[in-house]
Amino acid sequence: MSEKTRKLTMTDYLLAALLVLITLVCVAPILHTVAISLSDKSAVEGGKVLFVPVDFTWDAYMKMLDDAKFFRAFGVSVERVALGAGLQFILTVLMAYPMSMSTREFAGRNVYMWFIVFTMLFGGGLIPWYLVIKSLGLLNSIWALVIPSAVPVFNVILVMNFMRNLPKELKEASYIDGAGPWQLLLRIYIPVAVPALATVTLFSIVAHWNDFFQGLILMSRPENYPLQTYIQQLVVQLDLNETDSETLAQAAKLSNKSLNAAKIFVTIIPVLLVYPFLQRYFIHGITLGSVKE
């Protein structure tokens, strides 16, 4: 029976209802967070806010944005994502491409593969990691947030397996046409591997954007904090010694819960904007890249 003439069954309705329920479960926390961030202090503290703001107010966002440190931290995070995701993309491709070749084409493949797997299973620990970065003079620089995670082994294996599953006829036809290794990579493998590359790029963007720990450990100056570290460190400390009536009024209206909700919502906006453009590649890329012949 064709799709055009097939009638909806009870199973179809049940699956649709299940998908709607899952969607609501996923969206509800975001709506609750937004509602708290836009609600008055008394309503929030009284537990009256659910999914709709009560006594609508922008005080939490105004308090958060009325600070040059916020914009500086936001800029650091944007720079980190751009450099980190770009560097991870380049190194992942350059490492996964030769590793996807057979041992006949790449004699040392098994040795390199052993080292790759070893790095996934064992690590030197936090203190040696910090001392290495310090000895390289990277502390308090953007490169301290980028270089230590420049080669994500999981992403390399994902892209490598994707490339290994590509038809061998593509490679053979390219060699017959006179293409070399670089032409094969740039004109055949990268365009065909867009689903896997989009998937690992999404992983890189989310990992760099959400990480706060490295900024906390590697940055001793607050002006170098990325956004997540800034938010983690940010505490509401209104100076009550000031006699300015506007400051005192803001202290009376503002709730820690509202401010924290505003922080959470602002930090997820960039990911929400990027994800729809990469989502159509996500399932296809991670499924094919996780299967090994």
TrEMBL record:
Keywords: Cell membrane, Membrane, Transmembrane, Transmembrane helix, Transport. It comes from Cohnella soli. The keyword GTP-binding does not apply. Belongs to the binding-protein-dependent transport system permease family. Residues 74-278 form the ABC transmembrane type-1 domain. CDD domains: TM_PBP2 (cd06261). Pfam families: BPD_transp_1. This is Carbohydrate ABC transporter permease. It is found in: Cell membrane. It is a multi-pass membrane protein. The chain crosses the membrane at residues 12-31, 81-99, 111-130, 142-163, 184-209, 261-278.
